[in-house]
Design brief:
four-stranded mixed sheet, single chain, Ribosomal Protein L22, Chain A, 230 residues, binds coenzyme A, alpha+beta, three-stranded antiparallel sheet
């Protein structure tokens, strides 16, 4: 039986109208964190979306959802993956460029990542991101095609690292994913912390050519991903 993952995404507008209403569902600490960001609106849209989706799934008001952040590396609750108190619902959140994306699953730990294509590409990308077995799949690509391919590979890797909760403490070169022209999958994990079990990986179609996104779920069975937008 497929494991179910729901993904919701929103566009972050440059128009600040409505941001205050969204910020009203955040808690005090989130509002403070938003104010410190270079792009507060993006933070507010993303966290309001997370609270709304989690609230809907749990049958409570968005403002009543209780999160704890837990770092898989040091155990601190001051940073790390957001987890929900008193429930098995797993959530993950990502925002970049003009998009905010949230993933939820009752069936396994989820990780989602969205990347703005033009921001992910940089000089030396292959050396810091790819295992040597991954490089051939990007050979021969150039221009926008190469930028999209790199962004997609990066989103796949980061979504796995957000599902496990390690984030970039694990070197992305140790997370070997399928080539950009192939269906998304985790090919190998060379991280020193062992993986708890199989990882299901999927690319997300967000109907936006300037961003790419992927979702991972720690589960034995293939994922059925439902993408919803406003
Ligand atoms: C997780 C991480 C890859 C996200 O980076 P990013 O691409 O800049 O940001 P995204 O928009 O995709 O995701 C941000 C969200 O991921 C979530 N997140 C943070 N750390 C996470 C982790 N370890 N695992 C899963 N999700 C995490 C948070 O919800 C965060 O949003 P917030 O900061 O607004 O609360 C990066 O922050 C990271 O590697 N953090 C780990 C750092 C760490 O653990 N250091 C060691 C401390 S001992």
């Amino acid at each position: 039986m497929a494991v179910e993952v729901e993904v919701q995404w929103r566009r972050v507008s440059d128009d600040p109208t409505g941001i205050e209403a969204l910020a009203a569902v955040l808690d005090e600490r989130e509002r403070e964190r938003a104010a410190r960001r270079s792009n507060p609106a993006r933070y507010v849209v993303a966290h309001a979306l997370l609270r709304t989706c989690a609230g809907d799934a749990l049958g409570v008001r968005p403002s009543s959802v209780e999160f704890v952040r837990t770092c898989a590396t040091c155990g601190s609750h001051r940073h790390g993956k957001p987890t929900l108190v008193g429930t098995d619902l797993s959530v993950s959140l990502s925002y970049a460029g003009s998009l905010a994306v949230v993933a939820l699953s009752w069936d396994g730990e989820v990780g989602v990542d969205v990347e703005e294509v033009d921001e992910t590409d940089f000089e030396g990308f292959n050396a810091v991101t790819l295992d040597e077995s991954e490089a051939p799949a990007l050979e021969g690509l150039s221009g926008p095609e190469l930028r999209c391919a790199r962004a997609l590979v990066w989103a796949r890797k980061e979504s796995v690292l957000k599902a496990t909760g390690h984030g970039l403490v694990v070197d992305p070169r140790q997370v070997v994913v399928s080539g950009p022209a192939e269906a998304a999958s985790l090919v190998a994990w060379h991280g020193e912390h062992p993986l708890a079990g199989p990882v299901q990986l999927a690319d997300l179609d967000l109907a936006d050519r300037t961003h790419v996104a992927a979702v991972a779920v720690l589960a034995d069975e293939p994922a059925a991903v439902r993408v919803v937008t406003a």
